[in-house]
Specification:
Elements: E1 3-7, E2 10-13, E3 18-25, E4 30-39, E5 46-51, E6 57-59, E7 67-72, E8 77-82, E9 91-101, E10 104-106, E11 113-118
Parallel strand pairs: 2-11
Antiparallel strand pairs: 1-3, 3-8, 4-5, 4-9, 5-6, 7-8, 9-10, 9-11
Amino acid sequence: QVHLVESGGGLVQAGGSLRLSCAASGDGFSIGVMAWSRQAPGKSRETVARFNSDGSTNYADSVKGRFSISRDNAKNTVYLQMNSLKPEDTAVYYCWCSATKLGYSYTPWGQGTQVTVSS
């Protein structure tokens, strides 16, 4: 099993910044993609940023230029720097990754961290 522990959510005013962290741990598993998704009340979950195994990154159009994803491979930790936050960024943010061990692959998710942006 791979466990993902997120931190860094909270309440911030519009225009402010927050930094989320997510640490993955799992004996013998190789971690590939690490990413952040979010889900706002009444809306479907969307992936906002992902850090691919080859070092490339992808962002949802709604966060391009404001959010930045980074990764510390030695610590199996991924970060999401969120700047110029808007009320519509309010959501529960989830970390997830691709985990592989002995040919078995699956996608574990974190428990989520609440981000609330006030206007």
